């Protein structure tokens, strides 16, 4: 039986349908490629903006650190200037003048000096006055020595601050290096020593120096530590109803992480603001808000965590940082050396 031949019109229609289907697939593929390219462009743009914001935060942190250093150096230099003025305006010249007068008066009566200072009314007064002058000079010398010690202490503090500033100044290419968190905190406290002492804050430190090291850029980590401490000081300033303020700083470690806890008795943070306080531009002090935003981003970029907790307004706050340390770093044996004040 002869097979019927296929209808030419139908075959043509099928070929046309296949071609149309191919065009649609090609169009879809092109559309997908365009969407993928668009998403990649947006992703790159977001990453670029994120890096720019972080760079601005880093710059803001460095500017803040520099301003703090200059402020503390200024605080140290101001009393040095005052002490120097005291030395300049002391009564040494007057004492010298009085001693000279006494000496000249005694020399005029040297032929009968014993009789002069024992029976003559003026001679007796001269002897008493010389004794009083000697006592005053001894007191002045003690005061002068004390002032000189304070000047030396102030100059030494400035030198230490400048030395710390140089050691934490960023180079052209910052590298990750092994860092001891406790030593970093001690340096940060040294930089802010005057700011803490002038507020009469009770400082409690629990900083074991035998904790394992962490691999980070030390300049950036120093910015984070200083920024958190400075925020605690600002919060303490804001809490004017309380007078006996405390600042507790502790470093610790477990099997995987190094921890830093900074607890203050400052104004605290409302519970509804605690989640957003590290957002970019969020600041209650009228600043840019880059500082805390940078702190959180830097710690999280190093696979760590930064958490702020507060019972509420007027009840202080606690910032906790946890950062993984060297997996191959053996912890030192023996009891940890604790520095507590």
Quick one: CATH class of one domain?
Alpha Beta
Gross morphology is elongated
Count the E strands.
Answer: 7
Radius of gyration: 37 Å
Total number of helical segments?
8
Overall description:
The chain has 341 residues and is α+β, with helices and mostly antiparallel strands. Among the domains are: 90-164; 176-324, Heat Shock Protein 90 (2-Layer Sandwich), CATH 3.30.565.10. Helices cover 59% and strands 12% of the residues. It is built from 8 helices and 7 strands, in the order ααααβααββαββαββ. It has helices at residues 8-88, 92-108, 113-119, 121-167, 181-191, 193-197, 218-238, 290-301; strands spanning 177-179, 202-206, 214-216, 246-253, 257-264, 305-309, 317-324. The strands form 2 sheets. It has a 5-stranded mixed sheet. Strand 6 and strand 7 form a beta hairpin. Helix 1 (8-88) packs across helix 7, helix 1 packs across helix 8 (290-301) and helix 2 runs antiparallel to helix 4 (121-167). The longest helix has 81 residues, at 8-88. It is elongated, with a radius of gyration of 37 Å. It starts with 7 loop residues before the first helix and ends in a 17-residue tail after the last strand. Residues 327-341 have low confidence and may be disordered.
């Amino acid at each position: 039986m002869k097979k019927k031949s296929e209808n030419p019109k139908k075959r043509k229609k099928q070929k046309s349908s296949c071609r149309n289907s191919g065009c649609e697939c090609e169009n879809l593929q092109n559309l997908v490629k365009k969407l993928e390219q668009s998403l990649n462009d947006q992703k790159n743009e977001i990453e670029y903006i994120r890096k720019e914001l972080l760079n601005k935060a880093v710059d803001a942190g460095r500017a803040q650190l520099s301003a703090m250093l200059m402020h503390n150096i200024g605080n140290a230099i101001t009393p040095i200037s005052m002490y120097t003025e005291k030395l300049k305006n002391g009564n040494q010249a007057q004492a010298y003048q009085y001693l000279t007068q006494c000496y000249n008066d005694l020399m005029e009566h040297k032929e009968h000096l014993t009789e002069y200072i024992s029976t003559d009314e003026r001679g007796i007064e001269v002897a008493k006055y010389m004794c009083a002058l000697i006592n005053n000079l001894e007191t002045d010398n003690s005061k002068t020595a004390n002032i000189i010690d304070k000047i030396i202490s102030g100059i030494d503090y400035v030198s230490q601050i400048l030395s710390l500033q140089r050691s934490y100044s960023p180079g052209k290419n910052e590298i990750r290096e092994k860092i001891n968190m406790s030593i970093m905190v001690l340096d940060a406290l040294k930089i802010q020593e005057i700011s803490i002492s002038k507020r009469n804050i009770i400082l409690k430190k629990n900083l074991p120096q035998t904790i394992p090291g962490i691999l980070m850029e030390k300049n950036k980590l120093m910015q984070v530590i200083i920024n958190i401490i400075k925020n605690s000081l600002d919060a303490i300033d804001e809490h004017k109803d309380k007078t006996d303020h405390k600042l507790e700083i502790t470093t610790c470690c477990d099997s995987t992480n190094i921890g830093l806890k900074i607890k203050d008795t400052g104004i605290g943070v409302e519970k509804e603001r605690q989640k957003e306080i590290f957002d970019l531009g969020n600041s209650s002090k009228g600043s840019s808000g880059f500082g805390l935003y940078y702190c959180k981003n830097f710690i999280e970029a190093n696979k760590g965590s930064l958490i702020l907790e507060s019972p509420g307004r007027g009840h202080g706050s606690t910032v906790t940082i946890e950062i993984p340390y060297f997996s191959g770093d053996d912890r030192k044996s023996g009891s940890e050396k604790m520095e507590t004040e």
